[in-house]
Amino acid sequence: MKATTKIKTRSLMACLALTASVQAAEADQNRIHGGELVLAPTQTNAHVRNFNPYNFSVGAFYAQDFIYEPLWIYNIAHPGQDFPRLAVSFETADDLRSVTYHLRPGVKWSDGQAFSADDVVFTFELAKSHPAFPVGLDIQSDSNPNGLIVSMEKVDDLTFVVRLSKPSGLAHEHIGVMYPLPRHIWKDVQDPTTFANSEPVATGPFTEVRSFSMSQFKVCRNEKYWDAGKPYIDCLKFPQYSGNDQTMLAARAGKIDWLGDGMSDPERTYVNGDKHNKYWFPAGANANLHLNTHKAPFNSLPFRQAFSMALNRRFILDVATFGLTTETQFPIGTGELYKDWYDAQALQPYRYLMEYNPKRAKALLDENGFVDRDGDGWRDNPDGSPIEFKLAVPSGWSDWVNTMMTVSENLRDIGVNAHLSTQDESTWFAGTTQGDFDVYIMWTKPSATPHGTYSLMFATDGLAEGRRLEQNMHGMVIPEINQALDRFAQTQDRAEQKKWLTQVHKQVAEKLPVITLFANPDWYQYNDSRFQGWVTQDNPYVRPMLHLGVPERGVHVLNLSLRKEAAAQVARQ
Amino acid sequence: MRFILRRLGFYCAAFAVALTLNFFIPRLMPGDPAATLFVSLRGRMSQQSLDAMRAAYGFDGSLWDQFVAYVFRLMHGDLGVSTVNFPQPASEMLLYAAGWTLFLVGVATLLSFAVGIVFGMLAAWRRGSFFDTLFTPVNVMLNAFTPAVVALLLLYGFALQLEWFPLGRAYDIDLEPGWNMAFIASVLYHSVLPLASLVIIAIGGWHLSMRNTMINLLNEDYITLARAKGLSGRRILFRYAARNAMLPQITSLALTFGFVLGGALITEVVFNYPGLGKFTLAAIEKRDYAFIQGQLLFLTVTVLLANLIADVLNLLLDPRLRDRSELA
User: Fold this and answer.
1) Sign of torsion, CA B299 B300 B306 B307?
2) Are A134 and B35 inside 8 Å of each other by CB?
3) Using CA atoms, how far apart are residues B304 and B317, in angstroms rounded to an integer?
4) Given this model, what pLDDT does residue B86 score?
5) Using CB atoms within 10 A as the burial measure, which of A373, A390, B109, B126 is most buried?
C-alpha cells in the first residue's frame, strides 16, 4: 500500500547517531566527574558580563553550545550522523512546505521550569518582532518578502510546525541551529538586542556563572541538564587574553586545555613546550580568489583560466602556507570538507585548471589578445588598455599574505602586472561590501551541506553596482547555478541532491567565477594532561574546533572528562 | 588673575576644538565598526536585519545627525555604547582601564622622576667622579632604548627563563579583586616587570635635565657665597642647589602627568596589562568610535588640566611672571 501522506523522517538517522556517539564515548562508569577545563576564548582586553547567545560582540561565544543548546547539531564531519539536542526528531512534509519538530521530553530550564514548544515559538516571535536581533532565521516579512519561514506554530507542548513560504527540503538546516530562549525570562526583556543576560537561565550543560572578574570567569555545570550524568566536567574556565603572544606563552606552557590559534610552526612553538600539547588541523573551508568580474580583464573567461593555470599551488601549499593547508582537487570553490559530494569523474576534465602550467597560461593569453601592446613589458587588454591590478589581503594574516605574494609572482611570470596590497584589517573588511576592488582572497562558509556554501557564493540579492556581499564578491550571476541549487533544495534524496550539485560544480569549473586555491586548516590545539575524550585524527567524531559557529563543540565538551591521574591530583590539593 | 582667566579662556576653546576633532578623527579612518562587527553575521541575516542592527548600534543617519547626537549625549555625561563590547557603555571600560593605567604609568612616572632626580643631583654634585662617568652615559643610553626592547628582554629573562615574575596580567586571575592584602600583594608582584620596563627608560631624561640645571646653578654666585660662609656640603646641595634646580623639573613633571592617560601601549601589550593604551589600540583596530572618542576626551582633559596646573605652579614659583601679569 502506498501511503498518501508520505513523510520523510530523520528520526531513524537520529537513533543511529545516538548509538554512534555512545560507541565513540567510553563506557560511562569509567568516567570521573569533576575538574575545570581551561579554554582560550576570543581575545579581549577585559571580560564583559554578557551571556546573550545572540550578541555576537561578546555573549555568543560563551552562551551558544555551552550555556544554550540548539535544537539539532549537524555533524558536518559525518553527514547523516547528527546529534539531536532539544529536538529528538523532525519531519519535512511531503510537499516540502512545512517541517514538524518533536522536542525532547523532560528537559528543564536551569531554574526548574519546563522547556516546551512555547519557548521555541516565543524565540521565533521575538526574532520576528526585532529584526535587529540576529537569531539568524530567514523570516518572511514586509521588508523581507523572499524569506523562507512564514510561521512557527505550537501543536502540543512537545511539538511545533514550521510553515515555509516555498517548498524546501533544506529548511531544517536553518531551523535546527536555533537556540531557544526561555519565554518566562525573556518575555519581560525590553530590547533583546541590548540585553546582557548576565544570569543566564538555559538548558545547556553549563549554566552557573561563577567568580566573574574582568580577567577570568567560570561557567559551571547545570545540575538539571537533561542528559543525566553529563557533563563530566564541573566548570569551564575562561581566562582573559588580549593578544596572540600572551595566549601562545600560556598554551605552550600547557596552561590551556583547549584552544584554536593560528600557528605557522606548531611543532616548534607549541608542542615543544609541553609533551601533552597536541594539535590537529583538519581541512576546513576553502580559500578562493574573487576576481572582480565586472571589469576587464577579469570579465574574460580565458584570462581567468590562464590566471588559474599560472598559480603554483604546490608552492603555496608547502611553503607560503607553511604546509598547513590541504590541496583542493577541482576548480569548484570547495574542497576536502565536502569530499563525499564530488563526482570526480564528471570533474576530471577541469582538473587541468588546478595544475601549474605557466606555458599553457601564456599561450592562452596570447591566443586571446592579452599581449604587450605598449611595449612596457607587461601584457595589456585586447583593446590596448594596460593591465595592472592589486591583490588585497589584510596585513598580518601571514599565510594569506604569503599566498597573495606567490600569486603576484606567478602572474608576473606570465607577464601580468599584479601587485600585492596589504591593508589594515578593518579597511579590508569594509572593502568586501563594495564593488571597487580587483582581486580579493576570501574564505567560504561551511554549512551542513554544500548547498549553504554555494547559495551564499551565488546569492543574487547582494549584487548591484558598488555593492557586494563577502561571499559573492566575484559579482557573477549564473542562472544555471541558482536553478540547480533550487532543485537541490527541493529534494531530500541524497543521490538526487548530488546530481544537482554536480551541475553546480560543473558550472563553477566551466565559468570560473572564483579561482580555487586550497582548503584552509581548521585550528585546533589541546592539552591532554588533565582531560581525556578529545577529538583526534584517529577518532574524528566531530569537527574539533572551539570557535563560535561550530555547534559540535557542544558534543565535544560533553565527551571530555578528567583523567585518573589528574583526578588524583585534584583530590590531593 | 587676568593671566589665569586668559589661560582658562584658551583652555575652553581648545577643549571645544578637541571635542569636534574627537568626533571626526575616528571617522576619517577607512572602514567602519559595522563592517568588522557584522562580518560574522553576513550570510546569516537578511540585508533588512543588518540595516535594523546598524540602527540599533547608532550608525544610521547622516554624519551631522550623528555629531549632534554625540554632543547631546556628551552634555549628559554619556560617552556612548562600545561596539567591541556591545552594549556595554564605553565609559565603563574606559574607567576600568584608566584605573590600571593611572597606577602603572603614574607610579612609573613618579618613580623614574624620583630616581632620576637623585641620580642627576648626585652626578652634578660630583661632576667627573666615578658615579657621574658611569651613570650619566648609562642612563642616557637606556633612555634611547625603545620600550619594546626593554619590555621583551625583561619578559624573556625574568618571566620566561628565570620564572621569578608572572608572564603578564595585573594580578593573579584566581584572586577576586578587592581591598585585601593578598590581592594588593599580587598587584604589586605583577607590576614589577611592567614598572621596571617603564622606569628604566624614563630615568635618563630626568637624570640629564636635573644634572644640567644643577651644574648651571652650582656656578652661581650664591653657591660660592654659601661655600665661603662655610656651610656644610650637604646643606648647600639640598637647601641651595637642588631645591632651586627642582623647580623646572616639577613643571615638566606636571606636564608629563597630562599624558599618563595615554597609557603605555607597548608595555601593556607585552605584559597583557589592562591599560588604556591596549584598549585604545583594540578600539582603533575595530573602529570602536565611542571608545576612541572617550579616550581622546580623557586625554584632552588631562593634558589641559596638567597645563593649567603647570601654569599656576609657574605663577606661584616664578615671581617675574607674576609681576609681569600684574603689570599687564
Assistant:
1) positive
2) no
3) 20
4) 81
5) B109
